[in-house]
Amino acid sequence: HLMRQDKALDRLVENLHGYLGIEPGKPIEKKETAPDFISDLKSKGWDIKKNENDCWEAFYKAYDITMIHIPSGKFMMGADDGGNDEKPPHEVDLDGYWIGKYEVTFAQYDLYCEVTGKEKPGDEGWGREKRPVIHVSWADAAAYCRWISQETGLTFQLPTEAQWEKAARGSRGFQYPWGNDFDKNKCNSIESGLEKTMPVGSYPSGKSPYGCMDMAGNVWEWCSDWYDENYYKESPGKNPQGPAAATPSPPAAASMSVFAFRGHYNFPRYFFTPLPLTPFALSRAGK
C-alpha cells in the first residue's frame, strides 16, 4: 500500500510540475515583489529595471538622470589605515536611499545654467557634455539640487558622507569600489597619467558593488555634511547626518584638484525626511 501511495504522490507532483510549467528537479524560483516606490516612480515617467548588480535602477530621460537604489542595512565606515578623520572604523546602519549612478555632468549642469541664467563654470579645456561638471561650490551643488527637485517633483539632496561611502564600498567594507587591491585601470587617478577628467562611466570595471560609477578617481565629490575631524569618534550608528557645525576643512585627498558632485535624491516616504541643513540631494555628490 505504501508503494502505491508513493507512486501516486510522484504522479501528482509530476502533473503539478507540468501544469505550472516547472522543469522536474529544478528549484522553484521565488518571484520578487517590487517595492511600492517602483510603481510610484513609474507613474512619474521613470524607467525602472534591475541592473547587473541586482539593484533597482531608475532612468529619467527628460533630464538624463540615472539613479541606483541602495538597500537599507549596515556597513563598515572608516578605516584603520586612513587619516585621523577616518578613524575609528565603525558600523553604520542606513535606511534605503537612491544615489546617482554617475557624477552630475556638464550637459546636465549647463542645462540648469541656461534655464536659470546662471554663468556656466569653466571646463579647463578638457571638454564638457558627458564629463563631470567641475568648478562648482557646495552652494552651487545645493542650488542645482533645488532646481532639479522643482523640475521633477522629487526631492534631491547631496548625500551624507555615510550614504556616499556605503554606495562606494558596499556592505563588505572594500577599500576600493571593486575590491581591496588598487588597480589603475579601474579609475581615473593620478596613476593613470591623464591629468584631466574623463566622461562619466569610462571605467565600468571599477563600478561599486551596487553599480555606481567613478566612485574612485575622476573628481572630488561634494556631500551634505559639515566637516569635523573627530566626528567618527562620536557619530551615531543610525543614519548619521554629520556634525552640527563646521570646523576647518580637511586637507586635499582626492585624485583631481577640482570639485564636482553626484546627485542623490531621496523620497521622504521611502527614505528619511531631509534635515534643514541638507538642502541638496543628487545622491552622488561627494567631497
- Whole-angstrom Rg: 22 Å
- Total helices: the number is 5
Derived from helix and strand composition plus strand pairing, the structural class reads alpha+beta
- The percentage of residues in β strands lies in 5-15%
Helix content: 10-25%
Overall mean confidence score, pLDDT: 79
- What order do the SSEs take from the amino end to the carboxyl end, as H and E? HHEEEEEEHHEHEEE
The largest sheet is: 4 strands, antiparallel
Task: Count the beta strands.
Answer: 10
Low-confidence stretches: 250-260, 262-287
Distance between the ends: 74 Å
What best-fitting shape do the alpha-carbon axes yield?
A: globular
Instruction: For the largest sheet, list the strands in their spatial order.
Output: 1-2-3-6
Element layout with pairings:
Blueprint: H1 2-20, H2 36-43, E1 47-50, E2 56-60, E3 65-70, E4 73-77, E5 90-94, E6 97-100, H3 106-116, H4 138-152, E7 155-157, H5 161-169, E8 220-221, E9 259-260, E10 264-266
Parallel strand pairs: 8-9
Antiparallel strand pairs: 1-2, 2-3, 3-6, 4-5, 7-10
Descriptive account of the structure:
- With 287 residues, the chain is α+β, with helices and mostly antiparallel strands.
- It contains 5 helices and 10 strands; from the N terminus they run ααββββββααβαβββ.
- It has helices at 2-20, 36-43, 106-116, 138-152, 161-169; strands at 47-50, 56-60, 65-70, 73-77, 90-94, 97-100, 155-157, 220-221, 259-260, 264-266.
- The strands form 4 sheets. A 4-stranded antiparallel beta sheet has the order 1-2-3-6. A two-stranded antiparallel ribbon has the order 4-5. A two-stranded antiparallel ribbon has the order 7-10.
- A hairpin with a 5-residue loop joins strand 1 (47-50) and strand 2.
- The longest helix has 19 residues, at 2-20.
